[in-house]
DNA sequence: AACTGAGCCAACCGCCGAGAC
DNA sequence: AGTCTCGGCGGTTGGCTCAGT
């Protein structure tokens, strides 16, 4: 049989740690070092689970931890690393001395994600929302041509990050400027459209939210979504759908295939060793995120990414969407509506 | 002063791979 | 070979703080 349980979970203390408990752990670690955490509570005289002791030590008591707030350099580093590896906080934290995965995760969730959204950047894909919508239009089969929605961008004035932080932003800003002029969109319309687009992102961008809450198995998709291939569209005009962008290839491609761009990015991030680490885990993640269109439930989140992948493959192969999955049902219904109301194809909806 | 909602973060939960038994 | 725990990880949550009303 296996090992005996580390502790009686019903009788251990939970919740916030007291200074006395902290002192006991510190004293124990300084005398004995870090070893078997399951023995720490008993030896240190604590009524806590060993796992809880380890967390307390790694997230708060470790002497090498920084207590001060994140610097702008760290902020930029986190954004770049998140773009490269997704929400693999432990990998990101390893590149930031003195920071824990919990620190980075909290900082991202409370500050950086909101900051990016405010800038008009999708925090999951690190692409402008307009780009995400354009891509989303490609997935569902809609043509975005003529839709002023996809030309919208937030005012650059609201940005608080260095312009170099977000790849392609200057290009987007220029394209945005051109598209606004081309389409004679007045400023107030522009801002109103962005408000609409923000609401749409929150409501209709469900699959990204799903992938963002996906744990290890979603990280693969996240990385794919932020791969350099996805930035090729930034060089196109905003009013034109990304004809070169192919989601089926995008989702099926190995995100770690070496390209010049990627090598440059790896160099920029000093992430060569990180890429190796990712490749080690990628095999597992690829198996988990199978492309058979099976939505998997884990920690309350559905893995829509895998479902989309499966559906896209079907579409690209020219087969009907009668498979019966959730996405199949949506697309079937979509087709019905579009067939019944063809005039809707050219309409811009104000939700 | 009391209430409320948002922001923040420490800690917990649940999953996974590795390895002990 | 099968069962179980450990250690690590990412996602989530409970509770504290603080600004606004």
UniProtKB/TrEMBL annotation:
<keyword id="KW-0804">Transcription</keyword>
<dbReference type="InterPro" id="IPR001005">
    <property type="entry name" value="SANT/Myb"/>
</dbReference>
<feature type="domain" description="HTH myb-type">
    <location>
        <begin position="9"/>
        <end position="65"/>
    </location>
</feature>
<keyword id="KW-0805">Transcription regulation</keyword>
<dbReference type="InterPro" id="IPR015495">
    <property type="entry name" value="Myb_TF_plants"/>
</dbReference>
<dbReference type="GO" id="GO:0048658">
    <property type="term" value="P:anther wall tapetum development"/>
</dbReference>
<feature type="domain" description="Myb-like">
    <location>
        <begin position="62"/>
        <end position="112"/>
    </location>
</feature>
<protein>
    <submittedName>
        <fullName>Myb transcription factor</fullName>
    </submittedName>
</protein>
<dbReference type="GO" id="GO:0009555">
    <property type="term" value="P:pollen development"/>
</dbReference>
<keyword id="KW-0238">DNA-binding</keyword>
<dbReference type="InterPro" id="IPR009057">
    <property type="entry name" value="Homeodomain-like_sf"/>
</dbReference>
<feature type="domain" description="Myb-like">
    <location>
        <begin position="9"/>
        <end position="61"/>
    </location>
</feature>
<dbReference type="InterPro" id="IPR017930">
    <property type="entry name" value="Myb_dom"/>
</dbReference>
<keyword id="KW-0539">Nucleus</keyword>
<keyword id="KW-0217">Developmental protein</keyword>
<feature type="domain" description="HTH myb-type">
    <location>
        <begin position="69"/>
        <end position="116"/>
    </location>
</feature>
<keyword id="KW-0677">Repeat</keyword>
<dbReference type="GO" id="GO:0005634">
    <property type="term" value="C:nucleus"/>
</dbReference>
<dbReference type="GO" id="GO:0003677">
    <property type="term" value="F:DNA binding"/>
</dbReference>
<dbReference type="Pfam" id="PF00249">
    <property type="entry name" value="Myb_DNA-binding"/>
</dbReference>
């Amino acid at each position: 049989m296996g090992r005996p349980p580390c502790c009686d979970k019903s009788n251990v203390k939970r919740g916030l740690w007291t200074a006395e408990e902290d002192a006991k752990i510190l004293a124990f670690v300084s005398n004995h070092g870090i070893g078997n955490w399951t023995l720490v509570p008993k030896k240190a005289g604590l009524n806590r689970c060993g796992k809880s002791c380890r967390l307390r030590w790694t997230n708060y008591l470790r002497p090498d931890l920084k207590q001060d707030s994140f610097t702008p350099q760290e902020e930029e580093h986190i954004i770049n690393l998140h773009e490269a590896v997704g929400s693999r906080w432990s990998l990101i934290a390893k590149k930031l001395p003195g920071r824990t995965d919990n620190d980075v995760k909290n900082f991202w969730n409370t500050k950086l994600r909101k900051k990016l959204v405010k800038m008009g950047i999708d925090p999951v894909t690190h692409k402008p929302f307009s780009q995400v919508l354009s891509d989303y239009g490609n997935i569902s089969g809609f043509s975005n041509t003529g839709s002023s929605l996809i030309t919208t961008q937030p005012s650059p004035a609201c940005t608080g990050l260095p312009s170099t932080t977000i790849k392609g932003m200057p290009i987007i800003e220029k394209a945005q400027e051109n598209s606004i002029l081309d389409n004679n969109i007045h400023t107030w319309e522009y801002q109103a459209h962005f408000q609409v687009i923000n609401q749409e992102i929150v409501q209709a961008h469900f699959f990204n939210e799903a992938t963002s809450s996906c744990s290890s198995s979603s990280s693969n998709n996240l990385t794919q979504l932020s791969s350099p291939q996805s930035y090729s569209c930034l060089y196109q005009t905003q009013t034109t759908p990304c004809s070169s962008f192919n989601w089926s290839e995008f989702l099926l491609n190995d995100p770690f295939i070496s390209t010049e761009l990627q090598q440059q990015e790896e160099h920029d991030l000093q992430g060569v060793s990180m890429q190796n680490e990712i490749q080690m885990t990628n095999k597992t993640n690829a198996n988990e995120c199978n492309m058979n269109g099976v939505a998997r439930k884990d920690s309350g989140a559905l893995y829509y990414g895998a479902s989309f992948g499966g559906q896209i493959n079907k579409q690209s192969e020219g087969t009907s969407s009668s498979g019966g999955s959730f996405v199949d049902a949506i697309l079937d219904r979509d087709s019905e509506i579009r067939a019944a109301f063809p005039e809707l194809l050219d309409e811009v909806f104000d939700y």
